[in-house]
Amino acid sequence: MIELCKLPYAYAALEPVISAETMTFHHDKHHAAYVKKANDLAAKAGLDDLSVEELVVQAKAQGDTKLYNNAAQVWNHGFFWQSMTGDSAKPSGDLASAIDASFGDLASLKTTFVEAGVGHFGAGWVWLAAVGDQLKVVSTHDADDLLTASGDVPLIVCDLWEHAYYLDHQNDREAFLKSWFDKLANWDFAAQQFMAARAGEPGYSYPAMADQSA
Ligand code: MN3
User: Fold this and answer.
1) Which of 58, 82, 106 is the last residue of a domain?
2) Which residues contact residue 156 at a Cβ distance below 8 angstroms, ignoring those fewer than 6 apart?
3) Ligand 1 midpoint to CA 30 (Å)
4) What's the gap in Å between 141 CA and the centre of ligand 1?
């Protein structure tokens, strides 16, 4: 069984870029629905004792698209909640150096990130990822994740599905992405992920049920 992970902040913590109303629907309805479907499908497949990470990998390996889509969306949303904070501070230390080395500076990374998100056709995700010390921006379609897609370690992600921004920004994905990058990106979390990537460690893992009982 997997569980709907808790938000690491209040529903209103990301306002005005993302309203409490959007966060409530996004977490309590969208994310919750993926958790329920993933649990139902995992139970039918006899895979209900797996972690979310194992479930994503296993479903993909078995070509179980429905289970994969739901499990990957569970994981992607857990990672997305961590990728944001209401107290966004600029990148520092090794992460800042890597951003400068890979993109020139933070403003150039922003341009690349926003262009990738705006240029992405339809639903999906835009990621900042690390391959060793190198950083890159990639987008994935629908539920596609970075756990199974490549050797890239995700640092942060932004949700490009319309449910992520439509109530607050309507069709203006570009305005959403620019504000998201400037005001919500959680660079402390990205720095932790970058450290894990360079140490060859897995980094973020979706909380197991027991982790949330405290
Ligand atoms: Mn979403």
Assistant:
1) 82
2) 83, 127, 128, 185, 186, 187, 189, 190, 193
3) 6
4) 12
